[in-house]
Amino acid sequence: MAPVLILLGPPGAGKGTQARMLEEDFGLIQLSTGDLLRAAVTAGTPAGRQAKAVMEAGALVSDDIVLAILKDRMIQPDVAKGIILDGFPRTAGQAAALDLLLAETGQKITAAISLEVDDAAMVGRVSGRHTCAACGEGYHDEFKRPAKAGVCDKCGGTEFKRRADDNAETVRGRLSAYHAQTAPLIAYYDSKGVLERINAMGPIADIRTALGQIVAGIAA
Ligand code: AP5
């Protein structure tokens, strides 16, 4: 059965960074509801128009919108390779809906991995973040700079962008939403026997190694 991994953690924990590395290391597919919602906002779809203001305020988009967008993505053939859910589920309702969706297709959660971090460091991580406008590779002003300044390591692109919700005030709202609505899912997945915890305060490469060891063990 193809692996179904969930990455849990507050804004800035490194979910997106590590999900892209797991794609490279294990051939899995990253499904980021944040990326899917931002694409819907850019495309100006009805869902994107509803989500825009909510995302800019740092609150959670409604379960109905998020589930519709995720289900559309999960019918694409590439997900058969196995998936890394990045930023989903985020509420008890989304977790229950995911259980149903997987049961319908004879799948189940392989592991929910909680990236454990100190909130105090997350504002700095998120506000220093930028991505390559061409390929989406993620960088940080201090912690992950391109080898050659101003040039993407992955595709050679020279334009970078920052997210509209990556300012200190909105990050604090996103951290509150995480603790109120998403952190309880750690106990939910623990009770199902699929929870793994990882200290995600060290260097990116060390976390990649630790995460790789967990995934190699459970996906084998
Ligand atoms: P989303 O896009 O999911 O954002 P988030 O959860 O707030 O997470 P981030 O992307 O900010 O952090 P990350 O953990 O991926 O960190 P990253 O690897 O980039 O959601 C955005 C919004 O969309 C939500 O607020 C909500 O409105 C909506 N939404 C999305 N999903 C939803 C859902 N399911 N339900 C309802 N609403 C939803 O790392 C951050 C920075 O730190 C980078 O620059 C990176 O280079 C750097 N970094 C990473 N790891 C380290 C490290 N170990 N040391 C130093 N720097 C590091």
Task: Outline the structure in words.
The protein is an alpha/beta fold and 220 residues long. It is built from nine helices and eight strands. The protein has helices at residues 15-26, 33-43, 46-56, 63-74, 92-104, 119-127, 168-182, 184-191, 204-219; strands at residues 4-8, 29-32, 83-86, 111-116, 129-132, 138-140, 160-161, 195-199. The strands form two sheets. A five-stranded parallel beta sheet has the order 2-3-1-4-8, sandwiched between helices. A three-stranded antiparallel beta sheet has the order 6-5-7. Helix 1 (15-26) crosses helix 9 (204-219), helix 4 (63-74) runs parallel beside helix 5 (92-104) and helix 6 (119-127) crosses helix 7. The chain is globular and about 45 Å long. The N and C termini lie close together (10 Å). The mean pLDDT is 95. Bound molecules: BIS(adenosine)-5'-pentaphosphate (AP5). Residues 9, 11-17, 33-34, 37, 54-55, 58-61, 66, 87-88, 90, 94, 125-126, 128-129, 138-140, 143-144, 165, 174, 200, 204, 207 line the site of BIS(adenosine)-5'-pentaphosphate.
- Distance between the amino and carboxyl termini: 10 Å
Low confidence ranges: none
- The count of DSSP E runs of length 2 or more, i.e. the number of strands, is 8
Global morphology? globular
Any idea what the radius of gyration is? 17 Å
Q: Which strand-content bin applies to the residues? A: 15-25%
Number of helices: 9
* Strands ordered across the widest β-sheet: 2-3-1-4-8
Elements, N to C (H/E):
EHEHHHEHEHEEEHHEH
Q: What is the averaged pLDDT score?
A: 95
Please state the structural category.
alpha/beta
